[in-house]
Structure formats: C-alpha cells, structure tokens
Amino acid sequence: MRPGAAAGTVATGERVGPGVERAPMRQTPYELRREYLLDPKTRLPRQKPPWGMLVAIDLNAGGLKWEVPLGSVSQEEVHPDQEKWGSVRLGGPVCTAGGVTFVAATLDGHLRAFDTETGKVLWKHPLPGGGQATPMTYEHGGRQFVAIAAGGHGKLGTKPGDYLIAFALP
After folding, report:
1. Contact at 8 Å (CB) between 114 and 51?
2. Strands 163-168, 100-103: parallel, antiparallel or unpaired by DSSP?
3. Would you give per-residue pLDDT tens digits along the chain (170 residues)?
4. Domain extent for 118
5. Sign of the four-CA dihedral 83, 87, 91, 92
6. 17 shares its domain with 99
C-alpha cells in the first residue's frame, strides 16, 4: 500500500511507469499492480509470438482437431510475419449448427467466419469499432443472423464505438 494511504479509502489507479498502474485495494493492506499486456510504444504484446490461436478440440476423440492463427496485430508491411502470430484477443467464438464458427475478439477489428470442421477462414469483415465481445446468432423471419457489439477496448487500444452490428446469413 502506498505510504499515507489508509485502508478502506477509495483511490484510483496511478501510473508508476510506462504501461504500469497501481492502486490500493479497499479494506486491505494490499495494493493492485498491473502491467499492460501491450507495450505502450510498439502496441505489440510484451511476450514472443504466437499471440492468438483459434483451436478446435474433437470431443469424441479427445484431441486437437485443428489450430489456426486468429487475427493480426499490425500492418503487414511493418511486420510481414504477423499473420502467423495471431492477435491478443478478448471475447469468444460462437458455433452454429450449420458448421460455421464466428469470432471477432482480436486487435485488428474484424469479424471472421471459420469452417468448424477444417478451420478455414470463410469470410472476414471489418467492424466500425473493436469487437472485444462474443458474437451471437439468432433466427428471425426464417433467416439466420449473427450479431456482435463493436465497442472497442480502452486498455487494448482498439477503436472505440457504440455499435451493434448484425449480418444476415445466406
């Protein structure tokens, strides 16, 4: 705890270095200290790649079915190998009975559709804000839709917004 901070006081986090915050934990003699996942200068994760994979498990066989990099972290011209790295992500996938898995969650701001059997990317679409959310699927009027909240994430540095985007499936 910071010197002079009494237990039970309400305090906001303070930056103690590049990408590092700390704050007292109310009603305890402890403090929270966290370092950002991304380097503030490069906006890349602090550990070595790969950073994000989409993985399918075969529940019948009990093993890995497939694994593919999910998302990208920067412009391809800056980091030509970035498609192999995947992206830090926050949000999960949704799988349809028709064999399509939808996921956004990445730093690059795209919603993707994967073939659930093979892991092949079927479709990719940019979102107006960061898609750090799990998509949902629903049926209306005999058509299936996939929807996602695209609101961004401040600490991850994705584009902020207040969008709810829905796509009709063919």
Report:
1. no
2. unpaired
3. 344 444 444 346 666 666 678 888 889 999 888 777 777 777 777 788 888 899 999 999 999 999 999 988 766 666 777 778 888 888 999 999 999 999 999 988 899 999 999 999 999 999 999 999 999 999 999 999 999 999 988 777 788 999 999 999 88
4. 53-168
5. positive
6. no
